[in-house]
């Protein structure tokens, strides 16, 4: 899932963006969790936020309730890319188009494996990744990709 953040993404809107795989923001975007300024707790948002921004950045946003601009959001890990406001949807659609051209099975397996290995200790994660690596060699998309590479396709 790709989030296109344009304008304000606060509270649940920011939480929704953080639950996406990729976040592309307009240079005019502002993100944050102002719940604490209203006596509320951004409870559900903490799950995604702590994973993308780390403990110190997450707590800073959650405890202060401050909003950050797109540049700071990128610096602390909330946003993958910041683009000029006028180019936001062009950039997002180009990224989505590039992903649509990829192997659907490889993308799905990559996302699943990423979630799994980030919850395991290093040795178990490496063992699990090695098992999945071997299994995916038998997926037709992988076979076709290997044949194309051997034939000289380096794209």
Automatic annotation (TrEMBL):
PROSITE patterns: ENOYL_COA_HYDRATASE (PS00166). Pfam families: ECH_1. It comes from the Bacteria. One of its GO terms (molecular function) is catalytic activity. CDD domains: crotonase-like. InterPro entries: ClpP/crotonase-like_dom_sf, Enoyl-CoA_hyd/isom_CS, Enoyl-CoA_hydra/iso. Gene3D superfamilies: 2-enoyl-CoA Hydratase, Chain A, domain 1 (3.90.226.10). Belongs to the enoyl-CoA hydratase/isomerase family. This is Enoyl-CoA hydratase.
